[in-house]
């Protein structure tokens, strides 16, 4: 099993959730409107530092994680404004309730 951490600009939440749906990944947690810093500066949801990020954390079977990462990368490369998307895939050694 894999643990996937995805961060992206909040306005792309629907697009990222569609990618998760495509891979039948329905167990995830979404943290909307979090503060963060990207390659173009801080995004703290204020007038000085506008914008926010969303974070999605999901679990996926080993065979789905690579395909998911490929689709997230394809989305990331579609537009310059998608370049903020970041994804990390980690191995899960133990878990409860799965």
Q: What key phrases describe this protein's structure?
A:
single chain; 98 residues; alpha+beta; Alpha-Beta Plaits; 4-stranded antiparallel β-sheet; two-stranded antiparallel ribbon; 6 strands; 28% helix; 36% strand
Question: Describe it for me?
Answer:
This protein is of the alpha+beta class. The chain has one domain: Alpha-Beta Plaits (2-Layer Sandwich). The chain is built from two helices and six strands; from the N terminus they run βαββββαβ. The strands form two sheets. It has a four-stranded antiparallel beta sheet with strand order 2-5-1-6. The model has no long low-confidence stretch (mean pLDDT 92).
Overall number of strands: 6
How much is the radius of gyration in Å? 14 Å
* Strand line-up across the major sheet: 2-5-1-6
Q: State the helix count.
A: 2
Number of domains: 1
Helices and strands, in order, run as EHEEEEHE
SS-based structural class? alpha+beta
Name the average pLDDT: 92
The fraction of residues assigned to DSSP E strands is: 35-45%
CATH topology, which one?
Alpha-Beta Plaits
The main pleated sheet reads as: 4 strands, antiparallel
- The percent range for helix content is 25-40%
Blueprint (SSEs and pairs):
Layout: E1 2-9, H1 13-22, E2 28-34, E3 36-38, E4 41-43, E5 53-60, H2 62-78, E6 86-91
Antiparallel strand pairs: 1-5, 1-6, 2-5, 3-4
């Amino acid at each position: 099993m894999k643990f996937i951490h995805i961060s992206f600009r909040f306005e792309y939440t629907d697009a990222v959730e569609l990618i998760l749906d495509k891979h039948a990944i329905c167990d995830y947690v979404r943290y909307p409107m979090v503060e963060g810093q990207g390659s173009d500066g801080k995004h703290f949801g204020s007038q000085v530092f506008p914008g926010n990020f969303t974070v999605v954390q999901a679990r996926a079977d080993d065979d789905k994680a690579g395909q998911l990462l490929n689709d997230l990368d394809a989305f990331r490369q579609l537009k310059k404004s998608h370049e903020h998307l970041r994804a990390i895939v980690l191995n899960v050694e133990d878990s409860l309730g799965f």
